[in-house]
Specification:
Oligomer: single chain
Largest sheet: 4 strands, antiparallel
Distance between the termini: 53 Å
Number of domains: 2
Number of strands: 16
Radius of gyration: 26 Å
Strand order of the largest sheet: 8-16-15-9
Length: 299
């Protein structure tokens, strides 16, 4: 918000101490109320407490804002349409509150909203699902339920992610902190070359499979670190370890078209595919698999 404009508007206005509350509604339902005394500084020439006003308007904004939802593909390849979000129209709301503040009597105000559009709509998603430019498959043990749960959660976190030209993807940022509150469980993990137990054990198989898939697609790998001990699901040196306050997998979309990441588990296999539009010009890279070709899923 432009504070110099705000201050100018205040100074040009006279201080008002008239009684009466402003009632804020959202879709006709009560949302908040405020008195002039709640906003006043009781200082001649500067009647409104800007700090209080900013805190109050931030609370209003948070309570009415709704994140938009990108269009996405379900497990059967059907497009689930996008859903627009909303946010407070802060400029209009500020003007309306000031109009109330410098006039007598109570008032009611329906909170003004602005529509927020998602980054990915159905049309864009339909365009960038046509050309598979990279993929990779790894196998895991079906009997380790805790580790499998972690793999599933991390795979879902990267699934349907769209990376636009020039953007970078950070595994830690996209997946977020792995906590028990998010459903992650304690499972085997390699720490300093030793096998141990930790929350989120197994997610490195997701970062590793993703690394090989985007490397296969020829994307620019910016950060990638191997474990200090070899893993069983990829050839030596083809893994990508990650931890919340440590190593990350970061890559960049160096193409002129957006890319779409599709990630899923089928039986005991984790499959990650990279798609884009049929007009993309890309340079794929051959990546190695383990000698056991069962790691590949039928096409």
């Amino acid at each position: 918000m432009n504070l110099s404009w705000l201050l100018g508007l205040i100074i040009l206005s006279q201080q008002v101490n008239a009684p009466g509350s402003l009632f804020i509604t959202n879709n006709g339902q009560p949302l908040s109320s405020v008195n002039r005394s709640d906003l006043s500084m009781n200082i001649p020439g500067l009647p409104m407490n800007i700090e209080k006003f900013e805190k109050w308007i931030n609370i209003i904004d948070k309570s009415v804002s709704k994140e938009p939802k990108n269009a996405m593909l379900d497990r059967h390849g059907n497009i689930i349409p996008e859903k627009p979000g909303s946010m407070l129209d802060r400029k209009t709301f500020t003007e309306q509150v000031y109009s109330y503040y410098f006039n007598n009597g109570s008032s009611q105000l329906e909170v003004p909203l602005k529509e927020v559009y998602p980054r990915v709509d159905s049309e864009l998603l339909g365009n960038i699902r046509s050309e598979k430019i990279g993929s990779y498959v790894t196998s895991f043990n079906n009997h380790n339920k805790e580790r499998n749960k972690n793999i599933y959660l991390a795979a879902e976190a990267v699934n349907n992610y769209v990376l636009f030209p020039g953007e970078t993807f950070s595994f830690n940022k996209v997946v977020g902190k792995r906590t028990a509150g998010k459903g992650y469980m304690s499972a085997p993990v390699i720490i300093k070359g030793e096998l141990s137990e930790d929350i989120g054990g197994g997610i490195c198989q997701v970062s590793t499979t993703l690394f090989n898939a985007v490397d296969n697609a020829g994307l620019n790998i910016l950060q990638r670190q191997s474990h200090t001990k070899e893993v069983s699901y990829v050839p030596p040196g083809r893994d990508a370890t990650v931890s919340w306050d440590g190593p990350d997998l970061v890559f960049k979309n160096n193409y002129n078209q957006p890319i779409l990441i599709q990630s899923k588990t089928v039986n005991n296999k984790l499959m990650i595919e990279v798609y884009s539009s049929d007009v993309i010009t890309y340079i794929p890279k051959k990546v190695p698999y383990l000698p056991n070709e069962q790691n590949r899923l039928p096409k």
